[in-house]
Task: structure prediction
Amino acid sequence: MGFGNISRVRTLLSSLPYFFLFLLPNCIAIDTISTGQSITDGETLVSSGNIFELGFFSPGNSTNRYVGIWYKKTSYTQVVGVLNAMKPILDSHGSLSINNEGNLVILDGKQNVIWYTNASSMWSNTSTVAILDDMGNFALRDNHLNVSLWDSFDHPSNTLIPNMKLGGNDKLGISLRLTSWVSENNPAPGKFFLRRNRQEAQQVYIVSGSAATIVNGSNLVKHWNSGQWNGRSFIGIPEMPQDYINGITFSSDGNGGEYYTYSLSDTSNISLAVLLSSGNIETKNWDEQKKEWVVFWLAINSQCDAYGACGPFGVCNKMESFICSCMRGFQPKFPEKWRNGNWSDGCERSTPLQCGSGSEGFLKLEGIKLPDVSEYLLRTDENECKVRCLNNCSCLAYSFVSGAGCLVWTTELIDVQQYSSGGQDLYLRLPSSLLGANTSDLVKARESFSSSVQDVEDPEIQFSHVKLGEDQELQLFDFDSVKMATNNFSFCNKIGEGGFGIVYKGDLSSGQAIAVKRLSRTSGQGITEFKNEIMLISKLQHRNLVKLVGVCIEGEEKLLLYEYLSNKSLDKFLFDPTQRAELDWTTRFKIIEGVACGLLYLHRDSRLRVIHRDLKTSNILLDEQMNPKISDFGMARIFGVKQDLANTNRVVGTYGYMAPEYGLEGIFSEKSDVFSFGICLLEIVSGAKNSSFCHDEEHLSFLGYAWKLWNTGKGMQLIDQTIVDSCDPLEAMRCIHIGLLCAQDYAVDRPTMSKVVYMLSTETTDLTPPKMPLYIRDNKDYINLSSHGSDVNSINECSITAIESR
Result:
């Protein structure tokens, strides 16, 4: 016979003797199970205050059954504890009871033991009861001794609720930690853990590892850390101020046990923290009006929050487009990896320390998430903290934190983040030469750079904002070093030519290969684009954008130095009869996704909202692994945060890739780039060049031909014959569909790049049909229409950052 909440009275009425027993006072409470009693699948226990509920549930899309605990108001939308997480019940006839030995036990429909507590009582088996209390703890108790034999709070799952403890007792081998689920469908222990580490300044970490490694603490991989505990909050969480209203308290039980406990100031609220199967932590509140959970904080909310994002001696700043930089006096350990967005190896010291020489001091870094693993703590004042670090040749940095004292680092500084607000002061040990460096050369360089472009009038461009010099965003090169790198601008080093001038391959003294764009003195265009490109691309850093290495201005010479990409531009492969075979479908799709991500960064994710205005296959460069990088920002324009459209009397770009509203009326927006991307996408799939395409039978334009094939169910005929047998037909057809959606005549009909990236990454979204192009005949019809709009200054197939001539 099972006993649950009051809603089960109807079931009890079917058995009169049991009904009379139910009426007896203190016999069976709805929050308690006694020896010989049970609840079955479909029945629940409810705590006395009607706050928590315990019962059987199936997580996510699973049909497996588990016994869990949840807030009664929320039902099992968020389970806070699972008893049989490692072994599910495979039928819907399970039961939870106290057996004859006084243990909690879960049985399936065939009476097989699924889970049990393995606790023992000194008294008779009938002395044990299991109670669900209003804090959410489910405890097996010995009534005679008035002690707990087993508590669910001692076996936390993936969720931390108020009054639960996180910590442990190293002497007794007790460790209370959160363990992620394998997935939302499987509550078995996953690979991520949230745990305290007493040895490392009382910080809390998200780590990954196996069950064995988490026990002995070895071979664990850190994914996030909270920063040091200062007595009131974790200083690595700037969202947690000193007067944190929902407070975390740290306590010691006097027997070697140390614990963090989370509490709410308003106990009527429902709030909890969950360690997700992805390795992140989210804290969320229950919205009673909407009947849903609302997430209000994520531990890893940006790339900078991930542990050691910029490696040793690197500093991460999520507000910067190029998020990683080296501390002063340090340089990237492997520059090539940094250029490709791989910062894990961090930085190394460029100027050695000379301990004991009296020529060292400290550089104050403000608003910092302090490095992980402070070597030791000194309870002293701030001045003594500085002196002790300076007198210790192993000391690399120190910080004095209110409530924590003196923190000293003697190993590499890792997991350092620059905050826009909050944070601590870190004092970095450096040679004196780097603390009071002569900046006259830097000032001269800035003045020269500014004067070289002061005659250019463009109200959009705030050129003085471009940073130059040491520890800045853009490196200045002298003309002689560039001349040497390009072998005196040798014809043999020439790799391209465009409207800007000639492009040369060069090799710096460091061994880095570069592409040098030299502004032609006789060029009718260039100075505006030169200035525009420097201002923009020095601020934009993304793995799918070409990287500007530096700039050289000397007299009439104006040069841009870029990373050299050995595979040059996409069009050299795509439209070459022999090389196009190197672009298999997997590579082409990777290029499509990369270009889409690069445009999304320009439109939405960069700190400057940028419209490229000249996207085409010749402006998509390829690195050694055929990863795409968008180039040529001479025509790009910056948009305001709330700006949607702009108009220009100087229409620049390349016909065939130019959106109708831009070519005819000079109106451009993010949707102009979307149109260009759609054309590029169709070219990548088909291997056909839109500007030279002509369908002999009907004189269809490239876009008109693509739409007609798609509309008549013959889209596969558009796919490049060199890949048609090996490509994924569904994926290729989806790309054609997306390309046609992007290249629709009216901007309002085109998707945003965020929508494009989503459509490329999922196969489940139904796509709307694209509208028929208004101009489906050959390109002459479109070009002739331009006479009705603004004056068009076409650069044809020339590109400022062309790696090879068009």
Observations:
- The CA atoms of residues 376 and 408 lie 6 Å apart.
